[in-house]
């Protein structure tokens, strides 16, 4: 048993013994059950995979792959696995909590039948007011599997070029062509399914011509150009593999007169005040109404006549908000499909009376939800309000932080991490789902938190405490519809880099199809300001039962090299 010392003062050190991590008692019992004379053969291991781990299609080749992964260890025996080798397999990369990464949802349905991994202001590196614009956040998002990238298009200072920036703020611009090239070079590294670029367009007609030329030259055959200006139904992700789609409102002539701009802005501001029942300062409304201003353009025949043909023909997903009240916004036209954008506040207000109408709308059309303008720190919001009402594009600040972003990352680990998750059947049924009705319990998830390891390899010795090893505890819970939300925590284990908890929890789920399992590890502090020790979120719909190794991630969602938990899942 090794030791670790912490310097308390010039003449005194605290010495702590570092124990060797041992298998939990349940693991020892399982090993005895599936081994003979202290050795687990290939067939024994396959039996364990099928009968206990629930991997019903496991073969001898799968068992052999596990044997091969352990051969470099001194504890491996050619005759089979001893207890220590079996324990190392349970904590290894081949025993993760989700099925091996592959696309397994039906990808042949219309685009409206899927949730899309969606970014908001994808070019910003930080906050919404003063951070830089760059291609780096776009590249990072695409490499994480994000499939919808948003770009705000504005005239440059000389009015003869197009730049990407957050209008009405102090954020620095980035060149549009750089953004388009970044998308082209990184669009299909994480997934071969289509990338949608949403343009928030503030351009005059001559600059829309420039955009049309840049987009066409940059993407070439990658660009999806529909045969008609108005699609009756969206194509499927399968038919759009390695294609780039453009989504924006149909263009119209830029109104140059200051008075007309002023009138337009006042109308938009008035609409928003009527909707929210409150007034906003000028600076706030310029930021808050950015999406409203773009989407608030009425879909009128005369607008369609004043268009830039080349630019218009690039648009495969038409965006727009019809004139009038919410019922008009959610109107369904059997002859064409479109995209509607609502702020998180607008959606919450709309769901109080029109939840079923929203779901019916999203069965054919696309609904994009975006963060309210007051989220200047690039924070995010509860995505389940949108998902439970069928919203396909719940747009997040991917450069943000916090539990909502972790949940978003967790949800899109499903379906091989391809950025498209098939909506549950109840959101697509003719018998329209009512999210306001409490449903009976459909599944019960039982979780046992056994132990953890790896922090001593990922963090410096005094990262959590200057004078002793860390005191870790675990928070476990469910993010989902209101009836399913729950959070529990283990006891804190004092002065231990390899804590053992052996605690059990139970979660009753009414809508498991939309539920995400959350884990956060914290280091206990008497002040209540606990130190962060890792997190992960996992879609319940794809959890593998049995004893699993769960890798932990940092605040940004990047996986630690070594820190992980050993957890058992039972789903009844």
UniProtKB/TrEMBL annotation:
<dbReference type="InterPro" id="IPR001192">
    <property type="entry name" value="PI-PLC_fam"/>
</dbReference>
<dbReference type="InterPro" id="IPR017946">
    <property type="entry name" value="PLC-like_Pdiesterase_TIM-brl"/>
</dbReference>
<protein>
    <recommendedName>
        <fullName>Phosphoinositide phospholipase C</fullName>
        <ecNumber>3.1.4.11</ecNumber>
    </recommendedName>
</protein>
<dbReference type="GO" id="GO:0016042">
    <property type="term" value="P:lipid catabolic process"/>
</dbReference>
<keyword id="KW-0442">Lipid degradation</keyword>
<keyword id="KW-0443">Lipid metabolism</keyword>
<dbReference type="Pfam" id="PF00168">
    <property type="entry name" value="C2"/>
</dbReference>
<dbReference type="GO" id="GO:0004435">
    <property type="term" value="F:phosphatidylinositol-4,5-bisphosphate phospholipase C activity"/>
</dbReference>
<keyword id="KW-0472">Membrane</keyword>
<dbReference type="Pfam" id="PF00387">
    <property type="entry name" value="PI-PLC-Y"/>
</dbReference>
<dbReference type="Pfam" id="PF00388">
    <property type="entry name" value="PI-PLC-X"/>
</dbReference>
<keyword id="KW-1003">Cell membrane</keyword>
<dbReference type="InterPro" id="IPR011992">
    <property type="entry name" value="EF-hand-dom_pair"/>
</dbReference>
<feature type="domain" description="PI-PLC Y-box">
    <location>
        <begin position="341"/>
        <end position="427"/>
    </location>
</feature>
<feature type="compositionally biased region" description="Acidic residues">
    <location>
        <begin position="289"/>
        <end position="305"/>
    </location>
</feature>
<feature type="compositionally biased region" description="Basic and acidic residues">
    <location>
        <begin position="270"/>
        <end position="288"/>
    </location>
</feature>
<feature type="region of interest" description="Disordered">
    <location>
        <begin position="230"/>
        <end position="307"/>
    </location>
</feature>
<dbReference type="InterPro" id="IPR001711">
    <property type="entry name" value="PLipase_C_Pinositol-sp_Y"/>
</dbReference>
<keyword id="KW-0378">Hydrolase</keyword>
<dbReference type="GO" id="GO:0005886">
    <property type="term" value="C:plasma membrane"/>
</dbReference>
<dbReference type="GO" id="GO:0051209">
    <property type="term" value="P:release of sequestered calcium ion into cytosol"/>
</dbReference>
<dbReference type="InterPro" id="IPR035892">
    <property type="entry name" value="C2_domain_sf"/>
</dbReference>
<dbReference type="InterPro" id="IPR000008">
    <property type="entry name" value="C2_dom"/>
</dbReference>
<keyword id="KW-0807">Transducer</keyword>
<dbReference type="InterPro" id="IPR000909">
    <property type="entry name" value="PLipase_C_PInositol-sp_X_dom"/>
</dbReference>
<feature type="domain" description="C2">
    <location>
        <begin position="422"/>
        <end position="554"/>
    </location>
</feature>
<dbReference type="GO" id="GO:0048015">
    <property type="term" value="P:phosphatidylinositol-mediated signaling"/>
</dbReference>
<dbReference type="GO" id="GO:0006950">
    <property type="term" value="P:response to stress"/>
</dbReference>
């Amino acid at each position: 048993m090794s030791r670790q010392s912490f310097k308390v003062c010039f003449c005194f050190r605290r010495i702590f013994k570092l124990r060797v991590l041992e298998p939990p008692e349940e693991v020892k019992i399982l090993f005895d059950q599936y081994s003979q004379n202290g050795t687990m053969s290939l067939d024994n291991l396959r039996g364990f995979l099928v009968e206990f781990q629930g991997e019903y299609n496991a073969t001898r080749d799968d068992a052999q792959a596990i044997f091969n992964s352990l051969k470099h260890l001194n504890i491996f025996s050619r005759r089979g696995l001893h207890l220590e080798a079996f324990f190392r397999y349970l904590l290894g990369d081949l025993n993760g909590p989700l099925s091996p990464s592959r696309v397994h949802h039906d990808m042949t349905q219309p685009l409206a039948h899927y949730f899309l991994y969606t970014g908001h202001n994808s070019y910003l590196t930080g906050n919404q007011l003063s951070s830089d614009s760059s291609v780096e956040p776009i590249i990072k998002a695409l490499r994480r599997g994000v499939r919808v990238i948003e770009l705000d298009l504005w005239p440059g200072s000389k009015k003869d070029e197009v730049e990407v920036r957050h209008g009405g703020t102090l954020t620095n611009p980035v060149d549009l062509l750089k953004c388009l090239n970044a998308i082209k070079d990184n669009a299909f590294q994480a997934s071969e399914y289509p990338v949608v670029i949403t343009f928030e367009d503030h351009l005059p007609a001559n600059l829309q011509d420039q955009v049309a030329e840049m987009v066409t030259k940059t993407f070439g055959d990658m660009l999806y150009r529909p045969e008609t200006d108005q699609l009756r139904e969206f194509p499927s992700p399968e038919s759009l593999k390695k294609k780039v789609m453009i989504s924006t409102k149909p263009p119209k002539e830029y109104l140059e007169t200051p008075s007309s701009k002023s009138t337009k802005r006042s109308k938009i501001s008035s609409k928003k005040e009527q909707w929210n029942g409150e007034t906003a300062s000028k600076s706030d409304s310029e930021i808050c109404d950015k999406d409203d201003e773009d989407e608030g353009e009425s879909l009128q025949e005369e607008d369609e006549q004043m268009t830039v043909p080349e630019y218009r023909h690039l648009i495969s997903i038409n965006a727009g908000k019809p004139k009038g009240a919410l019922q008009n916004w959610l109107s369904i036209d059997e002859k064409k499909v479109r995209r509607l954008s609502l702020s998180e506040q607008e959606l919450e207000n709309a769901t109080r009376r029109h939840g079923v109408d929203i779901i019916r709308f999203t069965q054919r059309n696309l609904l994009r939800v975006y963060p309210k303008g007051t989220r200047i720190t690039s924070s995010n919001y509860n995505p389940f309000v949108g998902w439970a009402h069928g919203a396909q594009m719940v747009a997040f600040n991917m450069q943000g932080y916090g539990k909502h972003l972790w949940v978003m990352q967790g949800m899109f680990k499903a379906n091989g991490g391809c950025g498209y998750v098939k909506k549950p059947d109840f959101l697509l049924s003719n018998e329209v789902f009512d999210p306001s009705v409490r449903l009976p319990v459909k599944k019960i998830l039982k979780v046992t938190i056994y132990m953890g390891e790896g922090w001593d390899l990922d963090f410096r010795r005094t990262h959590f405490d200057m004078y002793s090893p860390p005191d870790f505890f675990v928070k476990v819970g469910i993010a989902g519809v209101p009836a399913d939300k729950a959070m529990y925590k283990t006891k804190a284990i004092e002065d231990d880099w390899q804590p053992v908890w052996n605690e059990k929890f139970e979660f009753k789920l009414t809508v498991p199809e939309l539920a995400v399992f959350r884990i956060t590890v914290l280091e206990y502090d008497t002040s209540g300001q606990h130190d962060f020790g890792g997190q992960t979120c996992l879609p319940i719909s794809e959890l593998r039962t049995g004893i699993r190794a769960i890798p932990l991630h940092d605040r940004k969602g990047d996986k630690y090299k070594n820190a992980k938990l050993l957890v058992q899942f039972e789903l009844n």
